Amino acid sequence: MKVAVVGAGIGGLAAAIRLRVLGYDVAVYEKNATVGAGAIS
Ligand SMILES: Cc1cc2nc3c(=O)[nH]c(=O)nc-3n(C[C@H](O)[C@H](O)[C@H](O)COP(=O)(O)OP(=O)(O)OC[C@H]3O[C@@H](n4cnc5c(N)ncnc54)[C@H](O)[C@@H]3O)c2cc1C
């Protein structure tokens, strides 16, 4: 099954990793050029 995650903040990345481990085909869509959003410091 294919799953789309919108947003590559820590929440989206964590969800994507968990879904991938469960065997889903995951695509992450991020509007900005970098990942991590507000969690990067
Ligand atoms: C002022 C401030 C300072 C902070 N400082 C720190 C800090 O120093 N260290 C720390 O660890 N945490 C910090 N935090 C907390 C941290 O930002 C959040 O806890 C964490 O980033 C939340 O993660 P999130 O994935 O829920 O959302 P976000 O980090 O907001 O990620 C959401 C992502 O979704 C993307 N997005 C949104 N809409 C779309 C769309 N339509 N299409 C594609 N992509 C989309 C955004 O571009 C973003 O990348 C701070 C928060 C604030 C407000």
Structure description:
The chain has 41 residues and is an alpha+beta fold. It has one domain (2-39). It is 29% helix and 24% strand. It contains one helix and two strands; from the N terminus they run βαβ. It has one helix spanning 10-21; strands at residues 2-6, 25-29. Strands 1-2 form a two-stranded parallel ribbon. α1 (10-21) links the parallel β1 (2-6) and β2 (25-29). The radius of gyration is 10 Å and the shape is flat. It starts with a strand and ends in a 12-residue tail after the last strand. The structure holds flavin-adenine dinucleotide. The site of flavin-adenine dinucleotide (FAD) has 15 residues, from α1.
The overall average pLDDT, rounded, is 95
Structural class: alpha+beta
What small-molecule ligands were found?
Answer: flavin-adenine dinucleotide
Q: Major β-sheet, in short? A: 2 strands, parallel
Order of helices and strands: EHE
N-C termini distance: 34 Å
**How are the strands ordered across the major sheet?**
1-2
The number of helices is 1
**Oligomerization state of this entry?**
single chain
Provide the gyration radius in Å: 10 Å
Pick out the low-confidence regions. none
- Describe the global form: flat
Q: Kindly state the percentage of residues in helix.
A: 25-40%
Count of β-strands: 2
